[in-house]
Amino acid sequence: MAGAISSQITTNLVSLFNIHKPDKANFLFRRYGKQGVTAFQFLQSIGAVTPVAQDSFSHYEEDWIVSTFTPSVVGAGGAGVTVSITIDAADTQTVGSNYYVYPRVGDIVMFNNGVKGQVLTKTASTVNPVVITVAPLLTTDDIATSAVVGEQAIITSNSFAEGTDNPEGRVSRAYEYSFQTQIIKETINSTGTELTNQNWFNSIDGTTINAWFDKAKSIDLDYRMALAIDGMILYGEQANNTAVQGTTSAGLVSGVTSQGGNATYVPGLFSVAYFDQMNRYLDKQMAPREYVGLLGYQAFQDVENTLSNVFTQNPIIFAGGSGKTFGELMYGEDMKSLAGQSVEIGFRSITKTDRIFHLLKLPQLSHPKLYGATGFTEPSRMIFCPLDRPVAPKGGSMPRLGVRYKELGGYSRKMESWYTGGAGNIPVKTNTNDSIQLNSRAHMGAEQFGLNSFFQFSV
Predict the structure, then answer these.
(1) Is the pTM higher than 0.70?
(2) Which of 57, 51, 89, 48 is nearest to 71 (CA)?
(3) Is 97 in contact with 103 (CB distance < 8 Å)?
(4) For 274-287, what is each residue's pLDDT tens digit?
Protein backbone atom coordinates (compact mmCIF):
# COMPACT_ATOMS: atom_id res chain seq x y z
CA MET A 1 0.00 0.00 0.00
CA ALA A 2 1.28 3.42 -0.94
CA GLY A 3 2.50 5.59 1.91
CA ALA A 4 1.50 8.85 0.22
CA ILE A 5 -1.12 10.14 -2.12
CA SER A 6 -1.24 12.99 -4.59
CA SER A 7 -3.89 15.49 -3.47
CA GLN A 8 -4.46 19.11 -2.47
CA ILE A 9 -4.36 19.70 1.35
CA THR A 10 -7.82 20.38 2.73
CA THR A 11 -9.28 20.36 6.22
CA ASN A 12 -11.46 17.40 5.32
CA LEU A 13 -8.52 15.40 4.06
CA VAL A 14 -6.31 16.10 7.10
CA SER A 15 -9.12 15.23 9.48
CA LEU A 16 -9.23 11.74 8.01
CA PHE A 17 -5.81 11.12 9.49
CA ASN A 18 -6.92 12.44 12.95
CA ILE A 19 -3.69 14.32 13.53
CA HIS A 20 -5.02 17.60 14.94
CA LYS A 21 -4.68 17.99 18.72
CA PRO A 22 -8.03 18.90 20.30
CA ASP A 23 -8.01 22.33 21.93
CA LYS A 24 -9.13 21.45 25.45
CA ALA A 25 -8.57 23.57 28.56
CA ASN A 26 -5.84 22.18 30.80
CA PHE A 27 -7.63 22.97 34.07
CA LEU A 28 -10.68 21.57 35.85
CA PHE A 29 -13.26 24.31 36.32
CA ARG A 30 -15.10 24.29 39.68
CA ARG A 31 -18.70 24.60 38.52
CA TYR A 32 -20.05 24.88 42.10
CA GLY A 33 -17.12 26.83 43.51
CA LYS A 34 -15.57 25.17 46.54
CA GLN A 35 -18.99 23.70 47.43
CA GLY A 36 -18.92 25.27 50.86
CA VAL A 37 -15.71 23.56 51.91
CA THR A 38 -14.28 26.68 53.59
CA ALA A 39 -17.40 27.14 55.70
CA PHE A 40 -17.46 23.45 56.58
CA GLN A 41 -13.85 23.45 57.69
CA PHE A 42 -14.40 26.65 59.64
CA LEU A 43 -17.39 25.18 61.48
CA GLN A 44 -15.27 22.18 62.39
CA SER A 45 -12.92 24.44 64.28
CA ILE A 46 -15.20 27.04 65.86
CA GLY A 47 -14.77 25.58 69.34
CA ALA A 48 -12.02 24.35 71.57
CA VAL A 49 -10.29 21.31 70.14
CA THR A 50 -8.86 19.39 73.07
CA PRO A 51 -7.86 15.76 73.71
CA VAL A 52 -9.82 13.25 75.76
CA ALA A 53 -8.72 9.77 76.85
CA GLN A 54 -12.10 7.99 76.93
CA ASP A 55 -14.89 7.35 74.43
CA SER A 56 -17.35 8.94 76.87
CA PHE A 57 -16.67 12.17 78.72
CA SER A 58 -18.70 14.63 80.77
CA HIS A 59 -18.71 17.93 82.61
CA TYR A 60 -20.79 19.45 85.39
CA GLU A 61 -22.96 22.54 85.20
CA GLU A 62 -24.31 24.48 88.14
CA ASP A 63 -28.05 24.61 88.79
CA TRP A 64 -29.85 27.70 90.07
CA ILE A 65 -28.58 28.76 93.50
CA VAL A 66 -32.07 29.95 94.46
CA SER A 67 -35.38 28.42 93.50
CA THR A 68 -39.12 28.94 93.30
CA PHE A 69 -41.90 26.68 94.54
CA THR A 70 -45.34 25.87 93.18
CA PRO A 71 -48.41 25.11 95.31
CA SER A 72 -50.33 21.95 94.40
CA VAL A 73 -52.93 22.24 97.17
CA VAL A 74 -53.89 25.42 99.07
CA GLY A 75 -55.90 25.26 102.28
CA ALA A 76 -58.73 27.53 103.39
CA GLY A 77 -57.84 31.01 104.51
CA GLY A 78 -59.06 34.53 104.94
CA ALA A 79 -57.72 37.97 105.75
CA GLY A 80 -54.71 37.53 108.04
CA VAL A 81 -55.26 33.76 108.34
CA THR A 82 -52.33 31.28 108.28
CA VAL A 83 -52.76 28.85 105.35
CA SER A 84 -51.33 25.38 104.69
CA ILE A 85 -49.75 24.90 101.25
CA THR A 86 -48.78 21.55 99.74
CA ILE A 87 -45.73 21.93 97.50
CA ASP A 88 -45.82 20.37 94.05
CA ALA A 89 -43.94 17.09 93.79
CA ALA A 90 -41.89 18.48 90.89
CA ASP A 91 -40.26 20.90 93.37
CA THR A 92 -39.36 18.10 95.81
CA GLN A 93 -35.88 16.62 95.80
CA THR A 94 -35.39 13.15 97.22
CA VAL A 95 -32.17 12.11 98.92
CA GLY A 96 -32.42 8.53 100.11
CA SER A 97 -35.70 8.33 102.04
CA ASN A 98 -35.85 12.07 102.75
CA TYR A 99 -37.77 14.77 100.90
CA TYR A 100 -36.52 18.34 100.59
CA VAL A 101 -37.96 21.58 99.18
CA TYR A 102 -36.38 24.99 98.89
CA PRO A 103 -38.76 26.98 101.18
CA ARG A 104 -37.86 26.80 104.87
CA VAL A 105 -39.17 28.15 108.15
CA GLY A 106 -38.56 31.90 108.44
CA ASP A 107 -38.61 32.62 104.69
CA ILE A 108 -40.53 35.58 103.32
CA VAL A 109 -42.44 34.43 100.24
CA MET A 110 -44.20 36.49 97.59
CA PHE A 111 -46.96 35.44 95.22
CA ASN A 112 -47.48 36.86 91.75
CA ASN A 113 -50.20 39.28 92.94
CA GLY A 114 -47.68 40.94 95.26
CA VAL A 115 -49.00 39.46 98.52
CA LYS A 116 -46.26 38.40 100.93
CA GLY A 117 -46.19 35.92 103.79
CA GLN A 118 -43.82 34.11 106.11
CA VAL A 119 -43.27 30.36 106.34
CA LEU A 120 -44.10 29.36 109.93
CA THR A 121 -43.87 25.55 109.81
CA LYS A 122 -42.71 22.79 107.50
CA THR A 123 -43.29 19.04 107.67
CA ALA A 124 -40.40 16.75 108.47
CA SER A 125 -38.17 15.59 105.60
CA THR A 126 -39.50 12.05 106.05
CA VAL A 127 -43.01 13.16 105.08
CA ASN A 128 -44.13 13.41 101.47
CA PRO A 129 -45.67 15.57 100.08
CA VAL A 130 -44.07 18.47 101.91
CA VAL A 131 -46.53 20.93 103.48
CA ILE A 132 -45.71 24.43 104.74
CA THR A 133 -47.86 26.94 106.60
CA VAL A 134 -47.70 30.57 105.55
CA ALA A 135 -48.93 33.61 107.48
CA PRO A 136 -49.64 36.83 105.55
CA LEU A 137 -47.45 39.77 106.54
CA LEU A 138 -50.49 42.06 106.48
CA THR A 139 -53.74 41.25 108.29
CA THR A 140 -55.67 42.48 105.27
CA ASP A 141 -54.11 39.92 102.90
CA ASP A 142 -55.51 36.47 102.13
CA ILE A 143 -52.86 33.85 101.33
CA ALA A 144 -55.50 31.35 100.15
CA THR A 145 -56.49 33.55 97.22
CA SER A 146 -52.91 34.60 96.51
CA ALA A 147 -51.20 31.18 96.38
CA VAL A 148 -52.69 29.95 93.13
CA VAL A 149 -52.32 26.24 92.34
CA GLY A 150 -49.88 25.72 89.47
CA GLU A 151 -48.39 29.23 89.63
CA GLN A 152 -44.91 29.85 90.97
CA ALA A 153 -44.12 31.69 94.19
CA ILE A 154 -40.77 33.23 95.00
CA ILE A 155 -38.69 33.70 98.16
CA THR A 156 -37.61 37.30 98.66
CA SER A 157 -36.00 37.35 102.09
CA ASN A 158 -36.26 35.85 105.60
CA SER A 159 -36.92 37.05 109.14
CA PHE A 160 -36.15 35.59 112.59
CA ALA A 161 -36.92 36.57 116.15
CA GLU A 162 -34.29 37.72 118.60
CA GLY A 163 -32.27 34.93 120.19
CA THR A 164 -33.42 32.23 117.76
CA ASP A 165 -31.27 29.58 116.14
CA ASN A 166 -30.15 29.67 112.50
CA PRO A 167 -32.33 28.07 109.81
CA GLU A 168 -31.69 24.75 108.09
CA GLY A 169 -28.97 24.77 105.44
CA ARG A 170 -29.44 24.75 101.70
CA VAL A 171 -27.41 23.26 98.89
CA SER A 172 -27.53 23.84 95.14
CA ARG A 173 -27.27 21.01 92.67
CA ALA A 174 -24.91 20.37 89.79
CA TYR A 175 -25.97 18.58 86.62
CA GLU A 176 -23.68 16.17 84.82
CA TYR A 177 -23.79 16.28 81.03
CA SER A 178 -22.29 13.33 79.19
CA PHE A 179 -20.92 13.22 75.65
CA GLN A 180 -19.54 10.56 73.35
CA THR A 181 -16.90 10.40 70.66
CA GLN A 182 -17.66 9.20 67.16
CA ILE A 183 -15.37 7.40 64.72
CA ILE A 184 -15.61 8.98 61.27
CA LYS A 185 -13.96 7.33 58.26
CA GLU A 186 -13.49 8.00 54.55
CA THR A 187 -11.60 6.18 51.80
CA ILE A 188 -10.58 6.76 48.20
CA ASN A 189 -8.91 4.20 45.96
CA SER A 190 -7.59 3.69 42.47
CA THR A 191 -6.18 0.88 40.38
CA GLY A 192 -2.56 1.03 39.35
CA THR A 193 -3.63 1.47 35.74
CA GLU A 194 -5.74 4.53 36.55
CA LEU A 195 -2.78 6.09 38.35
CA THR A 196 -1.01 6.34 34.99
CA ASN A 197 -3.98 7.45 32.88
CA GLN A 198 -3.31 11.06 31.95
CA ASN A 199 -6.18 13.57 31.89
CA TRP A 200 -6.71 16.39 29.41
CA PHE A 201 -6.60 18.81 32.35
CA ASN A 202 -3.70 18.90 34.79
CA SER A 203 -4.64 21.47 37.45
CA ILE A 204 -7.41 22.56 39.79
CA ASP A 205 -7.23 25.75 41.84
CA GLY A 206 -3.61 26.02 40.67
CA THR A 207 -2.74 22.60 42.11
CA THR A 208 -1.23 20.05 39.72
CA ILE A 209 -3.20 16.83 39.26
CA ASN A 210 -1.41 14.28 37.10
CA ALA A 211 -4.20 11.74 37.37
CA TRP A 212 -7.72 11.69 38.82
CA PHE A 213 -6.43 10.11 42.05
CA ASP A 214 -4.46 13.32 42.76
CA LYS A 215 -7.68 15.33 42.80
CA ALA A 216 -9.45 12.71 44.89
CA LYS A 217 -6.76 12.59 47.59
CA SER A 218 -5.98 16.30 47.78
CA ILE A 219 -9.53 17.72 47.60
CA ASP A 220 -12.33 15.16 47.67
CA LEU A 221 -11.17 13.22 50.72
CA ASP A 222 -10.61 16.30 52.89
CA TYR A 223 -13.94 17.75 51.79
CA ARG A 224 -15.93 14.63 52.63
CA MET A 225 -14.22 14.32 56.01
CA ALA A 226 -15.04 17.97 56.75
CA LEU A 227 -18.69 17.34 55.84
CA ALA A 228 -18.91 14.32 58.10
CA ILE A 229 -17.30 16.13 61.04
CA ASP A 230 -19.47 19.20 60.63
CA GLY A 231 -22.54 17.00 60.28
CA MET A 232 -21.68 15.56 63.69
CA ILE A 233 -21.07 19.00 65.23
CA LEU A 234 -24.30 20.47 63.82
CA TYR A 235 -26.79 17.63 63.48
CA GLY A 236 -25.31 14.76 65.49
CA GLU A 237 -27.64 12.66 67.62
CA GLN A 238 -26.57 10.44 70.51
CA ALA A 239 -28.06 7.10 69.49
CA ASN A 240 -29.76 4.76 71.97
CA ASN A 241 -30.62 2.06 69.47
CA THR A 242 -28.41 -0.99 70.06
CA ALA A 243 -28.60 -1.79 66.34
CA VAL A 244 -26.51 1.30 65.56
CA GLN A 245 -22.83 0.53 65.01
CA GLY A 246 -20.42 2.53 67.14
CA THR A 247 -21.23 5.50 69.35
CA THR A 248 -22.56 8.74 67.92
CA SER A 249 -22.06 12.25 69.27
CA ALA A 250 -24.82 14.73 70.10
CA GLY A 251 -24.71 17.87 67.95
CA LEU A 252 -25.67 21.49 68.41
CA VAL A 253 -29.21 21.37 66.96
CA SER A 254 -30.39 18.46 69.09
CA GLY A 255 -28.78 20.01 72.18
CA VAL A 256 -30.45 23.39 71.73
CA THR A 257 -33.75 21.70 70.88
CA SER A 258 -33.80 19.77 74.16
CA GLN A 259 -32.14 22.27 76.52
CA GLY A 260 -32.15 25.74 74.99
CA GLY A 261 -34.68 28.29 73.83
CA ASN A 262 -36.76 27.47 70.76
CA ALA A 263 -39.17 29.43 68.58
CA THR A 264 -40.62 29.21 65.08
CA TYR A 265 -41.17 31.83 62.42
CA VAL A 266 -42.62 32.04 58.93
CA PRO A 267 -39.96 32.48 56.20
CA GLY A 268 -40.18 35.96 54.73
CA LEU A 269 -42.02 37.32 57.77
CA PHE A 270 -39.21 37.69 60.30
CA SER A 271 -39.47 40.85 62.42
CA VAL A 272 -37.57 42.69 65.15
CA ALA A 273 -40.11 41.32 67.63
CA TYR A 274 -38.35 37.96 67.36
CA PHE A 275 -35.17 39.55 68.74
CA ASP A 276 -37.24 40.81 71.66
CA GLN A 277 -38.68 37.34 72.23
CA MET A 278 -35.19 35.84 72.23
CA ASN A 279 -33.84 38.54 74.53
CA ARG A 280 -36.59 37.93 77.08
CA TYR A 281 -35.68 34.25 77.20
CA LEU A 282 -31.93 34.95 77.39
CA ASP A 283 -32.40 37.45 80.21
CA LYS A 284 -34.18 34.78 82.25
CA GLN A 285 -31.18 32.51 81.71
CA MET A 286 -28.76 35.21 82.91
CA ALA A 287 -27.18 34.87 79.47
CA PRO A 288 -24.14 36.87 78.32
CA ARG A 289 -24.27 40.04 76.26
CA GLU A 290 -22.63 38.92 72.99
CA TYR A 291 -23.90 36.25 70.59
CA VAL A 292 -23.23 34.81 67.17
CA GLY A 293 -26.10 33.71 64.98
CA LEU A 294 -25.40 30.77 62.65
CA LEU A 295 -27.95 31.31 59.88
CA GLY A 296 -29.06 29.47 56.78
CA TYR A 297 -29.28 31.48 53.58
CA GLN A 298 -33.07 32.03 53.74
CA ALA A 299 -32.80 33.03 57.41
CA PHE A 300 -29.93 35.43 56.69
CA GLN A 301 -31.96 37.12 53.97
CA ASP A 302 -35.02 37.38 56.22
CA VAL A 303 -33.06 39.01 59.04
CA GLU A 304 -31.11 41.26 56.68
CA ASN A 305 -34.31 42.46 54.99
CA THR A 306 -35.91 43.11 58.36
CA LEU A 307 -32.97 45.13 59.61
CA SER A 308 -32.72 47.09 56.38
CA ASN A 309 -36.42 47.98 56.45
CA VAL A 310 -36.77 48.78 60.14
CA PHE A 311 -33.52 50.62 60.81
CA THR A 312 -33.36 52.74 57.67
CA GLN A 313 -34.82 55.72 59.53
CA ASN A 314 -33.53 54.79 62.99
CA PRO A 315 -30.25 52.88 62.71
CA ILE A 316 -29.05 51.10 65.81
CA ILE A 317 -25.92 49.19 64.75
CA PHE A 318 -25.55 47.41 61.44
CA ALA A 319 -21.81 46.97 61.08
CA GLY A 320 -19.03 44.43 60.89
CA GLY A 321 -18.24 43.23 64.36
CA SER A 322 -16.62 46.36 65.78
CA GLY A 323 -13.57 45.91 63.59
CA LYS A 324 -12.91 42.31 64.62
CA THR A 325 -12.85 39.28 62.39
CA PHE A 326 -15.36 36.59 63.25
CA GLY A 327 -12.52 34.28 64.18
CA GLU A 328 -11.27 36.80 66.74
CA LEU A 329 -14.73 36.88 68.31
CA MET A 330 -14.77 33.10 68.61
CA TYR A 331 -11.14 32.54 69.55
CA GLY A 332 -9.94 35.82 71.04
CA GLU A 333 -6.97 37.95 70.07
CA ASP A 334 -4.54 35.06 70.51
CA MET A 335 -6.08 33.31 67.50
CA LYS A 336 -6.21 36.34 65.24
CA SER A 337 -3.80 34.97 62.65
CA LEU A 338 -5.49 31.57 62.47
CA ALA A 339 -8.89 33.16 62.13
CA GLY A 340 -7.69 35.36 59.29
CA GLN A 341 -6.37 32.35 57.38
CA SER A 342 -9.35 30.06 57.82
CA VAL A 343 -12.35 32.39 57.58
CA GLU A 344 -13.57 33.60 54.22
CA ILE A 345 -17.14 34.43 55.18
CA GLY A 346 -18.32 37.80 56.39
CA PHE A 347 -20.80 38.70 59.09
CA ARG A 348 -22.91 41.60 60.25
CA SER A 349 -23.83 42.75 63.70
CA ILE A 350 -26.80 44.31 65.42
CA THR A 351 -27.29 45.55 68.98
CA LYS A 352 -30.81 45.10 70.33
CA THR A 353 -31.81 45.68 73.96
CA ASP A 354 -28.14 45.89 75.00
CA ARG A 355 -27.29 42.50 73.52
CA ILE A 356 -25.01 42.19 70.48
CA PHE A 357 -25.80 39.66 67.77
CA HIS A 358 -23.22 38.84 65.08
CA LEU A 359 -24.94 37.26 62.08
CA LEU A 360 -23.03 34.62 60.14
CA LYS A 361 -24.34 32.88 57.03
CA LEU A 362 -23.56 29.15 56.90
CA PRO A 363 -23.55 28.08 53.23
CA GLN A 364 -23.83 24.39 54.10
CA LEU A 365 -27.37 24.93 55.42
CA SER A 366 -28.37 25.76 51.84
CA HIS A 367 -26.23 23.09 50.15
CA PRO A 368 -28.59 21.38 47.61
CA LYS A 369 -27.04 17.99 48.31
CA LEU A 370 -27.14 18.44 52.09
CA TYR A 371 -29.42 20.46 54.38
CA GLY A 372 -30.74 22.59 51.52
CA ALA A 373 -32.03 19.57 49.60
CA THR A 374 -35.61 19.70 48.31
CA GLY A 375 -38.07 19.34 51.16
CA PHE A 376 -35.62 20.42 53.89
CA THR A 377 -36.24 23.63 55.85
CA GLU A 378 -32.73 24.03 57.27
CA PRO A 379 -31.96 27.13 55.14
CA SER A 380 -34.41 28.91 57.46
CA ARG A 381 -32.74 27.78 60.69
CA MET A 382 -30.98 30.25 63.00
CA ILE A 383 -28.88 29.14 65.96
CA PHE A 384 -27.68 31.84 68.35
CA CYS A 385 -24.65 30.84 70.43
CA PRO A 386 -23.16 32.82 73.36
CA LEU A 387 -19.71 34.24 72.76
CA ASP A 388 -18.56 34.54 76.36
CA ARG A 389 -15.62 32.37 77.33
CA PRO A 390 -16.14 30.76 80.76
CA VAL A 391 -13.07 30.40 82.93
CA ALA A 392 -11.33 27.05 82.54
CA PRO A 393 -8.87 25.36 84.91
CA LYS A 394 -5.33 26.77 85.14
CA GLY A 395 -6.50 30.26 84.29
CA GLY A 396 -7.54 29.53 80.71
CA SER A 397 -10.89 29.99 79.03
CA MET A 398 -13.08 27.95 76.74
CA PRO A 399 -15.69 28.75 74.08
CA ARG A 400 -19.20 27.37 74.47
CA LEU A 401 -18.77 25.01 71.48
CA GLY A 402 -16.05 22.42 71.69
CA VAL A 403 -14.61 19.39 69.95
CA ARG A 404 -12.86 16.62 71.87
CA TYR A 405 -10.60 14.16 70.08
CA LYS A 406 -9.10 10.90 71.33
CA GLU A 407 -5.47 11.07 72.36
CA LEU A 408 -3.22 9.27 74.81
CA GLY A 409 0.52 8.76 75.15
CA GLY A 410 1.43 10.83 72.13
CA TYR A 411 -1.01 8.99 69.82
CA SER A 412 -3.64 11.37 68.46
CA ARG A 413 -6.76 10.29 66.58
CA LYS A 414 -7.79 13.83 65.68
CA MET A 415 -7.07 13.13 62.02
CA GLU A 416 -5.18 10.14 60.62
CA SER A 417 -4.37 9.32 56.99
CA TRP A 418 -2.41 6.40 55.57
CA TYR A 419 -1.93 4.45 52.35
CA THR A 420 -2.58 0.75 51.78
CA GLY A 421 -2.22 -1.32 48.62
CA GLY A 422 0.34 -2.63 46.17
CA ALA A 423 0.45 0.08 43.49
CA GLY A 424 1.73 3.63 43.21
CA ASN A 425 4.67 5.42 44.75
CA ILE A 426 3.85 4.66 48.36
CA PRO A 427 6.65 4.02 50.87
CA VAL A 428 5.60 0.44 51.66
CA LYS A 429 3.45 -1.93 49.62
CA THR A 430 1.03 -3.58 52.06
CA ASN A 431 -0.41 -6.27 49.77
CA THR A 432 -0.20 -7.68 46.25
CA ASN A 433 -3.28 -5.94 44.88
CA ASP A 434 -2.74 -3.76 41.83
CA SER A 435 -4.43 -0.82 43.54
CA ILE A 436 -3.87 1.94 46.07
CA GLN A 437 -6.13 3.16 48.84
CA LEU A 438 -5.90 6.34 50.93
CA ASN A 439 -7.66 6.00 54.27
CA SER A 440 -8.72 8.78 56.61
CA ARG A 441 -10.06 8.53 60.15
CA ALA A 442 -11.14 10.97 62.88
CA HIS A 443 -12.19 10.00 66.39
CA MET A 444 -13.88 12.95 68.06
CA GLY A 445 -17.03 14.20 69.71
CA ALA A 446 -18.90 17.49 70.07
CA GLU A 447 -19.29 19.24 73.40
CA GLN A 448 -21.42 22.23 74.35
CA PHE A 449 -21.44 24.22 77.59
CA GLY A 450 -24.57 25.83 79.04
CA LEU A 451 -27.06 24.99 76.31
CA ASN A 452 -29.75 26.79 78.30
CA SER A 453 -28.18 30.05 77.03
CA PHE A 454 -28.48 29.05 73.36
CA PHE A 455 -31.50 29.92 71.22
CA GLN A 456 -32.74 28.83 67.81
CA PHE A 457 -35.45 29.74 65.33
CA SER A 458 -36.78 27.18 62.88
CA VAL A 459 -39.85 26.83 60.65
Answers:
(1) yes
(2) 89
(3) no
(4) 999 999 999 999 99
